[in-house]
Amino acid sequence: MRKKIKISINGESVEVEKGTSILDAAKQTGVIIPTLCYHKDLCIAGNCRVCVVEIVGQKRLAPACATPCEDGMDVLTNSFKVRNSRKHIIELLLSEHNTECTSCYKNGGCELQLLASEYKIMNQDFINLVPFHNYTIDMFSPSIIKDDSKCIRCQRCVRTCAELQGVNALTMSYKGDHAKVTTFFEKAMNDVVCTNCGQCVNHCPTGALVEKNYIEEVWNAIADKTKHVVVQTAPAVRVGLGEELGFDPGTRVTGKMVAALKRLGFDAVMDTDFTADLTIMEEGTELLTRLKGALVDKNPTIKLPMATSCSPGWIKYIEHMYPNYLDHLSTCKSPQQMFGALVKTYYAKARNLDPDKIVSVSIMPCTAKKFEANRPEMHDSNFRDIDYVLTTRELAIMIKQAGIDFMKLKDMHFDRLMGESTGAGVIFGATGGVMEAALRTAYEIVTGREVPFDNLNITPVRGIEGVREASIKIENPLKAWSFLDGVELKCAVAHGLVNAKKVMDSIVSGKSHYHFIEFMACPGGCLGGGGQPIPTSPEIRAKRAEAIYAEDEGMPVRKSHLNPEVIKIYKDFLITPLGEKSHHLLHTKYTPRNRF
Amino acid sequence: MSTSYQLKRADFIFKNENDWEDVLRKSISRPPNELINELISSELKGRGGAGFPTGLKWKVTSEEVNDVKYVICNADEGEPGTFKDREILSRVPFKVLTAIAICGHVIGARTGFIYLRGEYFFLQNELNKAINEFEYYCKEIKFDFKIKIFMGSGAYICGEETALFESMEGKRGEPRNKPPYPSSFGYMGKPTVINNVETLAHTYTIFKYGSKRFYDLGVQYSRGSKLFSVSGDTPKPGIYELELGMSLADFVEEFGDDDTKAVQVGGASGFLVPRKRFAETNIGFQGKLVGISLPTGGSMMLFNSSRSMFNVLDNYLNFFAEESCGQCTPCRVGCQQLLKGIKAVKRGEKNAQYLDKMLKLAETMQFTAKCGLGQSVGNSFSSIVENFREEMIY
After folding, report:
1. With contact defined as beta carbons under 8 Å apart, do B310 and B304 qualify?
2. Residues A311 and A183 in one domain
3. For the whole prediction, is pTM greater than 0.80?
4. Nearest to B104 by CA among B57, B70, B64
């Protein structure tokens, strides 16, 4: 326990641990200090200066976020001096900011706009600095739009890209009046190491970084009577969407979401969880095949550990950063793309539809999925497998536009054929979930018994640590898998690319002896994805994770191989995991990329 | 002009003394505490302009428990109108090297750096030769100490101590949040003493002659002598070592061209003093009871009546708008607003009252900017606008 000290905030005494910032101490006394560059996920920058407070006896004001409390400190958060200075700073930020708020995608969700409205900046008479800069909007990325005229140089995106993701696609360049957030040699966002993870979008306080939205395109498709519009929803969306529509973080809104999608006019509302279960069948089988190839046949071309391939941010990351290690990736497509390939083949055939007339939409917690859907290799149905990807936030916008009172909706069920899921599919949305789902199935295939964990909850792979390890010893396997007898299956889970880098570096150095590793680009996994509601913070991610695991526990079936629709698709269409159809529709290849 | 105080020349820094080996040997044979007390009783304050008591800085850093500590000589002399450090390094480099090593002995550092301004690359060769000779001697007397030169890249902001550390660490030169201070968390996160070139040169004098010799110069709160870089409308520009505490009137009497309308004390980040305030202004650190005391890193720019103060301010603000690191709002945007603001007033696009709004903004910048750069832009802005308001408008 650290030493306690006493400070006074606006005359009220508060006891805090030594090292607590003034900002946190103020929160304890119910005093809110406005912030902009501060974000719970990131290191303290102290550069926006919106949070300045007065420490009695000091001439200069101190940034509350960056100043630790000291014993006996007398802090004023709303003095004459503080109020004037803070107002000045907001005015300054507005003067360099493109304030065409009504035509901004972040209108209503912009932290600077909110501050301006709180402080009632009515007579902005500082000189508008925007025309003095040659701003252009970078629209080249299929996922992210970067508009420098709206940037307030808080560097949240820069810190996000460096600290959470270790990608450093965005950095500060130039100085003084020319200081700006930019990419390597100011190339377009689609031409640099950006993984499209969208964490910068999720952390940007203004409209400088936003997702490229496809809302109008989807509305148009729905309105087109000749089109059959199918929608799929990712596991993490159901635990995040509620936040945009009036619910507290951690509220599960699966049934309401389905109901809302049906009201929006989608012709079929199905579930990415179904293909998550399918992924487990394919990826689990692939893992076992690789284990056999490596351990029994000693085939040197078979690479272990096998890495998961569900997270498109992670895929682009490894393509850029470890292009010589692409053989370690599972060849399985992500659940989104499996779904896309099946909708225009399996589903079209079963429903007797012309695949050309199907518009396939997916709702994802992710901006990298927009890039993934855009990959040239994702046309295995002979059409573009996924036509439009919307983030959780974009879906919320559509629901609001449609005038749906979301909170009053009655729960509905997903449509059949590709709408059935298991608890294993649901937990794909949380870090460790793919690993847990895979183990539930693979262990049972090999041994004929359930995983030896209480209530199927493989708790060692759950949690928030950046890298987690677990191992399961295989004993008494079924005859076909006798070569695995006594093998200790070593697994690791990494989320946030900065942690992925740690694990990859250990593989490169030859120190890692894992068999199977789950990688997720975003902190917390998909539930903390770049397309999830803003704000996302460690607490909110924890609540969404709780919701995911609660959803899993509540499912009647919790193992992918028992999903009745999965059983049916193998019986009717795919025949067998890693079979010829699977190979054609559900698996893919990867492209080595340069770092610059 | 009648004055109570005459200009007193001093001659310590550039005095040719070929005894650095003696000074080094004798100093490092003394216990650190004794040297610290010597510095504290000399009342030497930082000569870079901020005026932090040097003895205290060394003392605090010496008390930090850490196997690795650093001494850094800040030779990123970038303040407009300052050119003394360049002369010190080229004329008496051994005094500085000796002082760095003594500081290393005091605080327990085995490595020293000279952060050399990018534009001073021409000093590098000579300085490296001096360092080689110096290290050779250190080896001879079995004193384990290394000095390296780190070349800056030309950013003004990197003279700010924490931005300087960032720059040395290979990062973008942006000031850090303080606390923690360099004494506990400096270069590479290690306890670091960072002193201006001239400050170190003065410690040489103090260790050689004892603190009293130094203390006896100057006035209360502003002890010792200081180098002044005199430039502008003066018949004798150059570098002069003078005792602190002189009145600006005496200074102008000595250096002016009989038409001095104002003096910029302390460079672009300092204050402009108009003629009517020469007599009541003293050059030294805050704390003097009578009159105004202005600290300075040594830059003294004289302007005569042919100069437009609008142009002077415009020049300063252009400099700051460009040299701000751009991370904190008040400095990055504030500088641009002040610069564009005075132009707008001059052109009649904004009325004269807009100057008052900008004066308030300049005050906010002083209160809220992250580092000394942004905090001191208001010094020149306010002192020029308040004293020469009509020149801003017409």
Report:
1. no
2. no
3. yes
4. B70
> Could you give the CA distance from residue A26 to residue A36 in angstroms, rounded to a whole number?
16
Measured CA distances, A254 to A251, A409, A432 (Å) = 9, 11, 21
Domain count, chain A: 4
Interface residue B361 vs chain A (CB under 8 A): yes
> Model ipTM?
0.94
The CATH number assigned to the domain with range B309-393 reads 1.20.1440.230
Strand partners, A491: A470, A516
Give me the CATH number covering residue A200.
Answer: 3.30.70.20
Alpha carbon of A69: minimum distance to chain B alpha carbons (Å):
11
The residue whose two tokens read 């054929």 is: A417
Domain span holding position A192 = 128-211
Residues of A in CB contact (< 8 Å) with B are: 44-50, 52, 59-61, 63, 66-68, 81, 84-85, 88-89, 92-93, 95-96, 125-127, 129, 132, 152-153, 155, 171-172, 174-179
**Which of A181, A196, A211 lies at the terminal end of a domain, its last residue?**
A211
Domain boundary among A211, A228, A247: A211
Record: contact B327-A172, CB cut-off 8 A: yes
Nearest to B364 among A48, A88, A127 (CB): A88
Nearest CA in chain B to A83: B364
Nearest CA in chain A to B370: A47
Q: Which listed CATH number (3.10.20.600, 3.40.50.1100, 3.40.50.300, 3.20.20.70) goes with B218-304?
A: 3.10.20.600
User: Do B321 and A176 count as a contact with CB atoms less than 8 A apart?
Assistant: yes
Nearest to B333 among A59, A84, A96 (CB): A96
Distance between A159 CA and the closest CA of chain B, angstroms: 13
Taking only the tens of pLDDT, chain B with its 394 residues reads 344 446 889 999 999 888 999 999 999 999 999 999 999 999 999 998 888 999 999 999 999 999 999 999 999 999 999 999 999 999 999 999 999 999 999 999 999 999 999 999 999 999 999 999 999 999 999 999 999 999 999 999 999 999 999 999 999 999 999 999 999 999 999 999 999 999 999 999 999 999 999 999 999 889 999 999 999 999 999 999 999 999 999 999 999 999 999 999 999 999 999 999 999 999 998 754 556 888 888 999 999 999 999 999 999 999 999 999 999 999 999 999 999 999 999 999 999 999 999 999 999 999 999 999 999 999 999 999 999 999 999 9
Contact across the interface for A153 and B332, Cβ inside 8 Å: yes
What long-range pairs does A550-557 form, CB within 8 A, spacing at least 24?
A550/A252, A551/A238, A551/A239, A551/A252, A551/A254, A551/A423, A551/A426, A552/A423, A552/A424, A552/A426, A552/A427, A553/A423, A553/A455, A554/A423, A555/A421, A555/A422, A555/A423, A555/A426, A557/A422, A557/A423
Given this chain, do its domains B218-304 and B309-393 carry the same CATH topology?
A: no
User: Is the minimum CB–CB distance between B370 and chain A shorter than 8 Å?
Assistant: yes
